[in-house]
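Write out this protein's structure.
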Amino acid sequence: MTTELIFFVCFIAFIVGILLLDMLVIDKEAHEVSMKEAGIWTAVWITLALVFSVFLWFCGDMVHGIETYDQLVAVCTKYAGDIVPKLNPNDFEGGLALYREEMTIAYITGYLIEKTLSVDNLFVMMMIFTSMNVSKKEYQHVLNWGILGAIVMRFIFIFIGAAIIARFKWVLIIFGLFLVYSGVKMFLERNKKEEEADAANHPLVKVLSKFCRISHNFFGGKFFVRAKRTADNQIIEADKASGGKWFITPLFVTVLLIEFCDLVFAFDSIPAIFSVSLDPYVVFFSNIFAILGLRAMFFLLAGMADRFRYLKIGVCILLVFIGAKLLINEYIHIDAVMSLVFIIGVIATSIGCSLFVKDKKAEA
């Protein structure tokens, strides 16, 4: 437990360090992100995620501090029961290699699942930005804080979820049914026109308005501003001596809406990744690296959102597959490699169809 805690603290420190470098140094000045810049940063975050997978392949046992064969069996029994029969008491190193391989494949599979399921989330974020009339140069600022909040929420969700699953295995059946339902529902409603996110009438905004003063105009990149109302009901900046009181700006409301959006989508993505691995650390690592790349991915998708029209169908198929995998796991086991191959195949097919199959509606 001590080893796990030390490793986890080091991992969090590394992630926080990267985010602070990104927010306070690299992207200190607010600006509109170009497709080229988004592409470069997407490649950087994907590379970091792959580098971490290499670390897991060679040193994954360090996460749980496995030093003896008995510890290996205990960890595998808890998180990777399907490889326990393959372990050999006379080949500790071989068993470690097998465990690392399983851990790495689960991590990559979880990463791909989170990335794919995040696509819908990104489109909702676009609608939130549009409905709140946020300046494009402030998108990056809002998403930075959104990512920090998402990391905290995922930490809470994942480790509470792991504790519940460890005590009540039947929860996985509920997860499975929920994912199948989500996939079927999404497929049936795939052609339904997206409604604009009405941020002004969002329940969260209404609740905040009852307890807080909310400004209807922006003040640059500020989340909070000391201001006062004028005779014609305008809100202008004013110090305390001039009667100024603290107001929440629309930019901070946008951050809250982004966090609420991520909270809703976490109900799909986290159960989905638990279908790949019951190890909360693997689930957390894959989630965090996927989330870190979401900001760059957002700007990339914003520039070519209409080109991936079949990706939603791919997401539906993945949700149903992952849910079914949880439901039949007691009777038919689908190993991590097969899951990874299937997921890559669905993603590649969805993107390929989007790029090369002609859109009959567009031609009509």
